[in-house]
Design a protein that fits this description.
heterodimer; A: 256 residues; alpha/beta; Rossmann fold; 2 domains; 6-stranded mixed beta sheet; 3-stranded antiparallel beta sheet; globular; B: 255 residues; mainly alpha; MetI-like fold; 10 helices; 82% helix
Chain lengths: 256, 255
């Protein structure tokens, strides 16, 4: 059993962790184990990335943390019991709703009156750079724009924890880089803790305070790599020697 | 260079004119007596006569007043049951054998029983329409519900949506395209079902009654008028559903 603690040097190291997972084990319905004894804590305000090869159970772990699946063993403690925000691999928007109404959904479900919804949705669309696209349907949006709508929807109800499941995996490389930078900007502007699953090592190192490495199946956390590079970070930072050293450490851990 | 197609209204009118001309020519050349095979002119005359003495509209109104409630009641029963069958494995396992078996029995065979059991002429016909409409709408409701994306369910779950919220904001709109396709089929079937009901119980009202009496009296031109009227009613209902679809599924046509 290993206990991984992530401490952000920037954000409130004194407050209790926002999420604590203890000895999580989970197997598929056919009995094949996916996650084996994973424990982790996520500090409030941190940006944590989880990397690993395809099929080692990254998404399953995220779904356990999100409360979407109950683990067969172990516990997940979420400090706030408040809402969480999730961004899925594909944009997962409702095609029959406009961008505006997709973003408004969490507030509608919470029972907010339309008058209170409108300024918040407009502000959030502006924050993700989608001014003027309010009345567009998802089919009319590019992949990057659709993922921005999904991000806005995940943040509109001001969740304390944002879970991202390979959010930019379906985007082209250039869009992906730009979205990463946008995400950092939004993270600076909002008091939100981020847990992001990705298969891109450079992306993880560029964005996160801490990178967790999920080893081969059944997945367990084989390394935690703190990323001390100062913020704000730019795209060029991924070529810095320190970043390159982190890439090598993480790559070695994945290969174990 | 691509030549643009002529006006659709124009092409329809021309094809209709050609059809009527060919029909009339066949009658002229074959010299068929009107009770056997009336030409379009004879049918037109019968139509004018039936409109003038008020029979056609009166009976058409009765048939429509049976078909539309039949369609609506069919939906009101099939949509909730489809929801239940799609949501509950147990309900599906228990009910689906009976539902499938019931479809193996033609409605025309059940209809006489219904008229025996139900005193009201009107309701026995509505019920036949309900039976005909029910199944395609049920099947499409189930298919539509099955098509709802698992990830959108995850989203609703993560937002702690209630069952009702999930139905209203996810399941119903997601199933709507398939459901409306079923409703389109159901709209034409409702007219057929009503007619079957009128055939087995022709108590002096409805287009089915008009059809049967015209046939007994060898007024074949009147039979044609009724058939065409039925076609127009079915097409109008179909068109109404199509309009509803265009309004509700605007998002499908934005690209």
């Amino acid at each position: 059993m290993e206990n991984i603690s992530i401490q952000s040097p920037i954000r409130n190291p004194m407050s209790p962790p926002i999420l604590t997972a203890t000895n999580i084990c989970h197997a598929f319905e056919d009995g094949v184990p996916v996650i084996d004894d994973v424990s982790l804590t996520i500090e409030r305000g941190a940006f944590v990335a989880l990397v690993g090869s395809s099929g080692v159970g990254k998404s399953t772990l995220l779904r356990v943390l999100a409360g979407l699946i109950a683990p067969q063993r172990g516990t997940v403690q979420f400090a706030n019991h408040g809402p969480i925000g999730i961004v899925f691999q594909r944009d997962n928007l409702m095609p029959w709703r406009t961008a505006y109404r997709n973003v408004a959904l969490p507030l509608e479900l919470a029972g907010l009156p339309a008058a209170a919804v409108e300024p918040r949705v407009l502000h959030m669309l502006k924050l993700v750079g989608l001014e003027g696209a309010e009345e567009s349907y998802p089919a009319q949006l590019s992949g990057g724009m659709a993922q921005r709508v999904a991000l806005a929807r995940a943040l509109i109800h001001e969740p304390s924890l944002l879970l991202l499941d390979e959010p930019f995996g379906a985007l082209d490389a250039l869009t992906r880089e730009r979205m990463g930078q946008e995400l950092l900007r939004i993270w600076r502007e909002m008091p939100v803790t981020v847990f992001m699953v990705t298969h891109s090592i450079p992306e993880a190192v560029l964005l996160a305070d801490e990178v967790l490495v999920l080893g081969k199946r059944p997945g367990t956390i084989v390394a935690r790599v703190p990323i001390d590079a100062p913020r704000p970070r730019t795209l060029e930072d991924q070529f810095a020697p320190a970043a390159q050293r982190c890439h090598a450490v993480i790559r070695a851990a994945i290969g174990q | 260079m691509k030549k643009s197609l002529p006006n659709p209204v124009l092409t329809t009118l021309i094809s209709l004119a050609v059809l009527l001309l060919v029909w009339q020519c066949i009658v002229w050349i074959g010299d068929y007596p009107p009770y056997l095979f009336p030409g379009p002119l004879a049918v037109w005359n019968a139509f004018v006569f039936m409109v003038q003495d008020g029979r056609l509209l009166r009976h058409a109104a009765i048939t429509i007043s049976e078909a539309i409630p039949g369609l609506m009641i069919g939906c009101a029963l099939a949509i909730p049951l489809g929801y239940l069958l799609a949501k509950s494995r147990l309900a599906e396992r228990v009910l689906s054998p009976y539902l499938v078996a019931s479809q193996a029995i033609p409605v025309i065979a059940i209809a006489p029983l219904l008229t025996l059991w139900i005193d009201s002429t009107y309701w026995s016909r509505v019920l036949v329409a309900v039976l005909v409409v029910f199944f395609p709408i049920l099947v499409n409701m189930i298919a539509g519900m099955r098509g709802v994306s698992a990830e959108l369910y995850d989203l609703m779950h993560s937002l702690k949506a209630t069952t009702l919220q999930t139905f209203r904001r996810l399941e119903f709109p997601a199933a709507l395209p398939v459901l409306l396709a079923g409703l389109r089929v159901g709209a034409t079937l409702a007219v057929i079902g009503t007619l079957v009901g009128e055939f087995v119980q022709p108590r002096s009202q409805g287009l089915g009654f008009l059809l049967v009496t015209a046939r007994y009296q060898f007024k074949t031109a009147e039979v044609f008028v009724v058939l065409i009227t039925l076609g127009v009613i079915a097409l109008t209902l179909y068109g109404a559903v199509l309009l509803l679809e265009r309004r509700l599924l605007r998002w499908q046509r934005v690209v």
